[in-house]
UniProtKB/TrEMBL annotation:
<feature type="binding site">
    <location>
        <position position="124"/>
    </location>
    <ligand>
        <name>Mg(2+)</name>
    </ligand>
</feature>
<dbReference type="InterPro" id="IPR006206">
    <property type="entry name" value="Mevalonate/galactokinase"/>
</dbReference>
<dbReference type="InterPro" id="IPR006203">
    <property type="entry name" value="GHMP_knse_ATP-bd_CS"/>
</dbReference>
<dbReference type="InterPro" id="IPR022963">
    <property type="entry name" value="Galactokinase_bac"/>
</dbReference>
<feature type="domain" description="Galactokinase N-terminal">
    <location>
        <begin position="7"/>
        <end position="54"/>
    </location>
</feature>
<dbReference type="GO" id="GO:0005524">
    <property type="term" value="F:ATP binding"/>
</dbReference>
<keyword id="KW-0460">Magnesium</keyword>
<dbReference type="InterPro" id="IPR019741">
    <property type="entry name" value="Galactokinase_CS"/>
</dbReference>
<dbReference type="GO" id="GO:0006012">
    <property type="term" value="P:galactose metabolic process"/>
</dbReference>
<dbReference type="InterPro" id="IPR000705">
    <property type="entry name" value="Galactokinase"/>
</dbReference>
<feature type="active site" description="Proton acceptor">
    <location>
        <position position="168"/>
    </location>
</feature>
<dbReference type="Pfam" id="PF08544">
    <property type="entry name" value="GHMP_kinases_C"/>
</dbReference>
<dbReference type="InterPro" id="IPR019539">
    <property type="entry name" value="GalKase_N"/>
</dbReference>
<keyword id="KW-0418">Kinase</keyword>
<dbReference type="InterPro" id="IPR006204">
    <property type="entry name" value="GHMP_kinase_N_dom"/>
</dbReference>
<keyword id="KW-0547">Nucleotide-binding</keyword>
<dbReference type="Pfam" id="PF00288">
    <property type="entry name" value="GHMP_kinases_N"/>
</dbReference>
Length: 377
């Protein structure tokens, strides 16, 4: 935090009022179900965005990034959706809070993050949720955790322009250590689900294929619109309400739409199955669900890419119990359920396979479920 404090002092001539953080996340299972009013089961990572922050009294927002070595100054009156680059993820939170009627004034926000960008680990949500946490404390706001996540989502949807669901922000805000967060994306009911990986001699390998992706591009939005159109044809509020998959598919003429619907409906079922297994404490039995989820994303939702598929296939060949892409797709990360101590060996084997295929070297680590956003003491 010393580097954050130094940069803050160089910008303001004073000490930060505090340090706040929010983590990236891995989605254990439940991909593209959130905006279909479905179910998800993410957990937070130890990798996080951290802010040194303090109030200003000149109606200015000063935002700096240690990694980019850049800073931006914006007048509060000039905050507007669609304006800004990397700083929009922080400025958008200020805008969203003010739009919601909260008395938030100027601030200096100095950012550092070790959540990989474009890897599907919710680097943007980590930044947004850390900003929410800082501003809530700095300005003495009373906002429940789920409502904080929704503010961060508004920032991403309306200000940045990425049509994501609530999964990322909810995970970054509400997760607890050594647990997954089961979230019903319609009711917003949550359950902290114990994930005692170490006690069962298991670990989660998270491997970044280094194939960047972006939720602001057209493919994510296209998938979402197709789901909304299918729900309208089927006469349901959202695909979460489809109870007879075969009957639903028979009502759809377009093969692409049928495959999108099949993914969402079966993925929701897999999340509920995973929840039941986690409640029973049988984490090894999650492996076939991870495999089935990846096949569905590859074949029905068509959001995987060759690097991701190779990583998943190689992980299984190298001894992973189960593996899948995690995140919105078109690049990013995979996760694999592996025996304790195997993560690095399997990561090395994937790196070898990438080299043989002419791909760049991936990065990987073993993940431990971590707590959600808060203040660093």
């Amino acid at each position: 935090m010393a580097a954050l404090a130094d940069r803050f002092r160089s910008l303001t001539g004073s000490e930060p009022e505090g340090f706040w953080f929010a983590p990236g996340r891995v989605n254990l299972i439940g991909e593209h179900t959130d905006y279909n009013d479905g179910f998800v089961l993410p957990f937070a990572l130890e990798r996080k965005a951290v802010l040194a922050a303090g109030r200003r009294h000149d109606d200015q927002l000063v935002i700096a990034s240690l990694e980019l070595n850049e800073d931006v100054t914006i007048a509060l009156k000039d905050l507007a959706p669609g304006v800004g680059g990397w700083d929009a993820y922080l400025a958008g939170v200020v805008w969203a809070l003010r739009e919601a009627g909260h008395a938030v004034g100027g601030a200096t926000l100095v950012l550092s993050s070790d959540v990989p960008l474009g890897a599907g680990l919710s680097s943007s949500a980590a930044i947004e949720c850390a900003t929410v946490a800082a501003l809530v404390d700095l300005y003495g706001l009373t906002i429940e955790k789920m409502d904080r996540a929704r503010v961060a989502q508004v920032a991403e949807n309306a200000y940045v322009g990425a049509p994501t669901g609530l999964l990322d922000q909810a995970a970054s805000t509400l997760c607890e250590a050594d647990a997954g967060l089961f979230l019903d994306c319609r009711t917003l009911d949550t359950e902290q689900v114990p994930l005692p990986m170490a006690a069962q001699a298991l670990e989660i390998l998270v491997l970044d294929t280094k194939t960047p992706h972006s939720h602001v591009d057209g493919e994510y939005g296209t998938r979402r619109r197709t789901c909304e159109e299918a729900a309208e044809i089927l006469g349901v509020d959202a695909l979460r309400d489809v109870t007879d998959l075969d009957a639903a598919l028979a009502q759809l003429d377009d093969d692409t739409m049928r495959r999108r619907v099949r993914h969402v409906v079966t993925e929701n079922a897999r999340v509920l199955d995973a929840l039941a297994l986690a409640r029973e404490g049988d984490l090894e039995a999650l492996a076939p669900l991870l495999d089935a989820s990846h096949a569905s994303m590859r074949d029905d939702y068509e959001i995987t890419v060759p690097t991701v598929d190779l990583a998943v296939e190689t992980a299984r060949e190298a001894g992973a119990l189960g593996a899948r892409m995690t995140g919105g797709g078109f690049g990013g990360c995979i996760i694999a359920l592996v025996r304790a101590g195997d993560a690095d060996r399997i990561g090395q084997r994937i790196a070898e396979a990438f080299s043989e295929a002419g791909y760049g070297r991936p990065e990987w680590f073993a993940a431990t479920p971590a707590p959600g956003a808060g203040q660093l003491r």
